[in-house]
Write a structure and sequence with these properties.
Layout: E1 2-6, H1 10-22, E2 25-29, H2 50-56, H3 64-68, E3 79-83, E4 90-98, E5 101-108
Parallel strand pairs: 1-2
Antiparallel strand pairs: 3-4, 4-5
Length: 109
C-alpha cells in the first residue's frame, strides 16, 4: 500500500511521520516550492490539543517539549496576528493582565 499525502503542512507531515512509523509507504505532494512561495497569513497554535498531538507522534522523534522548552521562560502572552497579503499592516489580539484582570486588546499595526 502507498498513501499519497496532499500538502506538507502540519497535518500532512504528522501523517507522514505516523505512516513511516507503521512502515507504510507514502509520498507527499506540495504545490509551494519553498516556505516563502506564497503569503502565509495564519499561524497555528495547538493549545488544548497539544497533548493529543504529541501522543500521536512516533516515539523515535526527538521530544518536542524538550526541544522547545527553551521558549518557556519567555512567558509570552497569547497572541493572534493577521497580516494582509502583499501589505505591511494587519491586526491582532493579545491577552494581557492589568491590575489582576485579563483583557483582550485589539491592536492595529
Amino acid at each position: 500500500m502507498k498513501v499519497l499525502i496532499v500538502g506538507a503542512g502540519i497535518g500532512g507531515l504528522t501523517l507522514a511521520q505516523n505512516l513511516r512509523q507503521l512502515g507504510i509507504s507514502y509520498e507527499i505532494f506540495e504545490r509551494d516550492v519553498d516556505n516563502n512561495a506564497r503569503f502565509q497569513g495564519w499561524a497555528i497554535a495547538l493549545h488544548t490539543i497539544v497533548d493529543t498531538f504529541l501522543s500521536s507522534l512516533p516515539s523515535d522523534l526527538p521530544d518536542v517539549r524538550e526541544a522547545t522548552n527553551h521558549l518557556a521562560p519567555l512567558n509570552i502572552p497569547a497572541q493572534f496576528r493577521y497580516y494582509y497579503a502583499g501589505k505591511d499592516d494587519g491586526f491582532g489580539f493579545e491577552v494581557c493582565d492589568y491590575n489582576g484582570s485579563t483583557y483582550q486588546v485589539k491592536n492595529y499595526f
